[in-house]
Structures are given as C-alpha cells and as structure tokens.
Specification:
Immunoglobulin-like; Chondroitinase Ac, Chain A, domain 3; eight-stranded antiparallel beta sheet
C-alpha cells in the first residue's frame, strides 16, 4: 500500500505540450520568439507639428525636445515638406526598457555605457520622411548626471538577429553634456544612442553563457546579461551549433544578472541569476551560468524588467 503525499514544497509542472528542443540557424516571424519580442515592446509616443517658415521646438510625449528647421525635411522623392508632420518617438533610459525593445548596448561586440537611447520617425500622409542633405535637427533630454564622454551611435538592424550600434563620427552628429541634460545634433532618424565605449584595456574578460533546460531554444527564448553597476545591457545570442545563448566579451569582476525570457505554447517563462564575472589577465574566460526559468505571466515579466 502507498499513500498520497500532500503538502509538497516543490511543484513540478507537466511537460509542455509539443516539447521542442530544436535550435535553428535562421529565426523567422513564425516562431514563438517573434511573438514574445512583439509582446514586450513599449508603446511609441505619437505627436505632430506644423513646419512652415519658422523653426519648430516640439516637446514630445516621450520626453524628447526636438527642434526642426524649415526646408530640412524631405519626402522619399526629395521634395521639401511643409505643413503638418507626424512624429513618433521613444526615449529609453532604463535597462529593462532596452531589453523590451531589443536594443542592447554593444557596438561590433564592444561594450557601451549608455546615456540614453532614442527613436525618431517622421511621416506625412502615411509616407516616411527623411532629412535633407547636410541638414540636422536637435534633440534635448534630461539626465541627472550627464557625462562628457558621450558620443553618438546609430542603430544598425542589417542583421535582424543582432541589433548593433555604429559610431557616428562626422561633425553633423554631436552630443554635449550640460547641467542635467544632453543636447544632441544629428542628421539621423530612427534609432540613435548616446554612449561611450567601456575601456577594457588590461582588464580580464570573459564570455558568459546560459546553461538552460533543453526546451529553451533560440526559437522560443530571448536572453540578456545586465551589468548591475553600469548602464549597460548585453545581448546573449543563440548559437545553433553550441545550443547556447552567449554574450561577447565582458569585463571580469563585475556583478551581472543573466535574464532569460521565453514563450512556449501559451505560457511565458522568466529566469534570472546574479553572478560575479570571472577571468584571468591575458586570457578570455568562458563562464557558464545555470538558469532555471519558471512559468509566469507577461505582466510579471514586464514588472521584473522595470526593476532592473
């Protein structure tokens, strides 16, 4: 005879229906991870302004102040635009928001320290607009402790699987730190980042990989490493050969949090683990971090990301 054992402290869920441990070389929009990324996105702020013969200073709902000049905005066919123009903006200051938007702070694999990521899109009659050659506009936003080290980077989404930031080095793209705010001059629309490179000269470095249960794959999971004491977030990209999510090079002796978010079937999963990066001078270490995600809700995931 055996008795039914009740009041267990450990709850083990049933296996997920349609358990799939397949990794893929290419990710497409039919896979669960695409829906996960869409569900995490922050809303876009929408405003409009009249551009005619005078300069326009617009305070957007996202917290960006944008200044546009007459004749500086063109249609796709290079026709000057005047009258009512519609603008979409975002300003990302929190690390959790950067995870939600899939815009980690790295440039060609090198770590960036961010002073703010922002997005600007202009349209008229539903058509995308552009800036005139050699034209620029100004962006201003508040920051309690602006750094004079900041430079501008443009978002590069050429590879849809890996978001990248590319340095903007020409004289039309500058950022100036004032007392509690930044002022940006730029000739770029879409994603822009105010950053500087983290100096790793002579510092031990390591690559962090997530050790996950077999059903967490690049088809249903997204992964990031957050540097706890710096304004930096690093993407962990899935490799179908190693079946691992891994970072690029990170500085050793830093407290970091590995964040795993997954959508499997109709369920959401979240896991996070804090560790100290390790490494030896003169070598690039490899550090595996075991994370066991648990079932949760999309709202709980957003709440956790807001806490980072």
């Amino acid at each position: 005879m055996s008795s039914c054992q009740k009041d267990l402290d450990l709850f083990v869920p049933d296996p997920i229906a349609g358990f799939d441990s397949t990794w893929h070389n290419n990710i497409d929009n039919s896979m669960p991870v695409a829906g996960l990324k869409t569900a995490l996105l922050l809303p876009i702020y929408k405003d409009s302004f009249e551009l005619n013969a005078t300069t326009v200073v617009l305070n957007t709902g996202s917290g960006l102040q944008c200044t546009f000049y007459p004749g500086s905005i063109l249609t796709a066919s290079n026709t000057p635009v005047a009258g009512r123009i519609y603008i979409e903006t975002q300003l990302l200051k929190a690390k959790g928001d950067m995870i939600r938007m899939g815009t980690p702070t790295t440039s060609n694999g090198k770590l960036l320290i961010s002073g703010g990521e922002f997005f600007v899109r202009l349209t008229k009659n539903g058509q995308e607009l552009q800036l005139a050659p050699n034209s620029r506009y100004y962006i201003q936003y508040n920051d309690p402790s602006p750094s004079p080290l900041m430079r501008l980077f443009a978002g590069d989404q050429t590879n849809p699987a890996v978001f990248n930031w590319l340095p903007l080095t020409d004289t039309l793209n500058t950022v100036t730190a004032f007392n509690q705010y930044y002022q940006v001059s730029t000739n770029r629309l879409q994603w822009i980042n105010c950053d500087y490179f983290y100096d790793t000269t002579g510092i031990p470095q390591t690559i962090v990989s997530a050790n996950l249960p077999a059903n967490y794959t690049n088809a249903n999971t997204t992964a990031y490493t957050v540097l706890n004491d710096m304004h930096a977030v690093v993407g962990m990209y899935g490799n179908a050969t190693t079946r691992k999510f891994s970072t690029g090079r990170l500085p050793a002796n830093k407290q970091v949090t590995v964040v795993i978010i997954s959508k499997q079937g109709n369920d959401y999963f979240l896991g996070h683990e804090q560790v100290l990066t390790t490494g030896s001078a003169g070598t690039i270490g490899n550090q595996s971090v075991t994370v066991t995600p648990v079932i949760t809700t999309l709202d709980n995931i957003k709440t956790y990301l807001n806490s980072l």
